[in-house]
Amino acid sequence: MKTRTPLLVSAGIIHRNGQILVGQRRGDDRHPFKWEFPGGKVEAGETPQQALVRELREELRIEATIGSELARYEHEYPSGSRVHLLFFAISKFVGEPTGQVFEQIRWIDPPYLPELDFLDGDYDFVRRLARGDFKRQLK
Questions:
Q1: What homologous superfamily is domain 7-11+15-107+117-130 in, according to CATH?
Q2: Contact (Cβ atoms closer than 8 angstroms) between residue 37 and residue 15
C-alpha cells in the first residue's frame, strides 16, 4: 500500500486584545461549517510563511507579518489523507479582517475555542491554545 505524502498547511493564529480570530467554513466547502484558523496549502515554490501571507490576503484581505512558529504536527484523517500543520503567531497586520471565503469569522477568547466544532486536525492545537500553552508567544 502506497503512503500518501502529507499536504503541507500553514495556519495563522491571529491575535488581538487577547482574542484569536477563527473562521467557519461554508456549507458547500469540504468539511462544511467546521471552524479553523485562517491559512491554507503551501504551493510549490513557496515557504510556509509565504503561503500564509498569500492565504491571509485571499481569505481575509489583510497584509500580515508572520511571527514565530508555535507548533507543528501531522494529522491523519479517517479517509487516509494526511496533513502536516504549521501554526504561526500573527500580531501585526494591516487592514481589518473580512471573511472572503468563510461563512463567518469571529474573535474568540482562547478558553472558549474548544466549544467550537473545529476541524479534527486542529483539535490538539485548540486544546493547548485554550489552556494557555502559547500565552507567552502571543503577547
A1: Nucleoside Triphosphate Pyrophosphohydrolase (3.90.79.10)
A2: no
